[in-house]
User: Fold this.
Amino acid sequence: MKKIAFYVEGQTEQFFINKLLIEIAGQKNIQIELQQFQGIGKAKRTIYPKSTANPQNPQHFALIFDCMGDGGVKPRIIEDASSLLAQGYSEVIGLRDLYPLTDITRFEDELINGTIRKGRRITPALPNDTSIVIAIREIEDWFIAECNHYSHIDASLTLNSGQITSIGFNPQTDDLTTRSNAAAEDLRTIYQLVNKTYNKSKDKVERTVECLDYCNIYLNTKYRFLKLQELIDKIDRFLS
Assistant:
C-alpha cells in the first residue's frame, strides 16, 4: 500500500485535504486517518470528519495530521519524518498559510532550507522526502475562488453584480492573493451578504468544505493558484 502524510496547521486544512483526497481518489479507493497534536509526549487525538472514506481493498493510505498552529507544521514534520519514512510513507507534505506575512520567496526558502545567519544555523532545513505547500494569504482564498459553492451556502448568494459591488472585489476574476486582509475575513464578508457567516469553528468550516465543487477545483480553480496546483499535482502523483 502506498502511504502519504499531510501535516497541516489546523482543522480547516485537515478537513479540506480529507475531502479533496476522497473526491480525487474515490471514496472506496483510499484509507484516510485524521489525527490532532495534543502536546509533546501526549497521545494524538483521532478526528472524525463529516465526510469519511469507505475503503474496500484500498491501495493508498493517507495520514492527515493537525499540528494545531502554523508554527507547528515544520517542527512536527522534522520530529516525525524519519519514523514515517521508515514506516513506508513515500512523502510527507506540509500545508500552511502565508498570512500575515507577504514575502513568499523568503518565507518559503527559510522553511525549506532553514536559516543561516553569520555562518551559524538558526533553524534546520526540511528533511529529504518532505515538503511544505504554502497557501498565499490563507487556504480560504481557494474557497473564495470556487464560486460554484456559494449557491449551496444560500440559494440567493449568486455573486450577481450588486453583490460583487457590495463586497468591493470580484471572487471570480480578481487576484485574491494580492489582497491585504485575511482571506477568512473576505469569505465571511461574502457570506454576510445573505446573513450567513464564516469562522474557524468546526461546523462552519465543514459546511464550506462540504459545499465546495471539487470537480471545479480540480479542473479550473487550481489554475488560479500555483500552490493549489502544486498540491493537487502531488496528490495525483501519489495516486498514480
